[in-house]
Specification:
By secondary structure, the protein is of the alpha/beta class. It has one domain: 3-Layer(aba) Sandwich (Rossmann fold). The chain has a six-stranded parallel sheet with strand order 4-3-2-1-5-6, sandwiched between helices. The longest helix has 22 residues. The mean pLDDT is 94.
């Protein structure tokens, strides 16, 4: 993508690929109901404390009547989807096509695989009534900052963004408090 301008035909074709990603997502996710989206690491292993917490949280969200939505991958995403499924709730995911990973996890009632990260983030926001952010890496930070920016700029309504894992996020919390003070 960061290759500079292309021919007008190539740019036009890119526009259609983006539109196709959105249409595929809208079609698959239209009837999923109100969602709570869970963000977190794909690298967390089953049996770890964070995996177990995400699994319990997914079950709790489902028992409240919300669909659990994730990025459809393994780790925290799988755990939240698994918890929702085990609690008898709905579980959906927005997978991303990557060259080295990730197949949708096995605990999804519905999923869509997308090419563009920004389309995926838009869909994760569109159907959500709240976000839960668990320990993760660069992708999780990207999703968290996207949500914070959309709320701050009024592009989406102010709604709950729950950051779980006090110790994990401590340094980021200090930085965010400083940023908030500075405006």
């Amino acid at each position: 993508m960061l290759e500079g301008p292309h021919s007008r035909f190539d740019e036009f074709f890119t526009l259609f690929r983006i539109m196709a990603d959105f249409l595929r997502g809208f079609r698959v996710l239209h009837f999923v109901g109100p969602c709570v989206t869970v963000f977190g690491s794909a690298r967390i292993k089953p049996g770890s404390p964070d995996y177990q917490l995400a699994r319990k949280m997914g079950a709790g969200i489902a028992r409240l009547g919300f669909t659990v939505m994730t990025g459809a991958g393994p780790g925290i995403m799988e755990a939240a989807n698994r918890g929702a499924r085990e609690a008898g709730g709905r579980s959906v995911g927005c997978n991303i096509k990557l060259p080295f990973e990730q197949a949708p996890n096995e605990y999804l009632d519905r999923s869509v695989t997308l090419y563009y990260f920004f389309v995926r983030k838009m869909l994760l926001v569109k159907y959500s009534y709240a976000f839960v952010v668990m320990p993760g890496g660069a992708g999780t930070l990207d999703e968290l900052f996207e949500a914070l920016t959309l709320v701050q700029t009024g592009k989406i309504a102010d709604f709950p963004i729950v950051v779980m894992g006090t110790e994990y996020w401590r340094e980021l919390t200090v930085l965010l408090e400083k940023v908030a003070r500075l405006g």
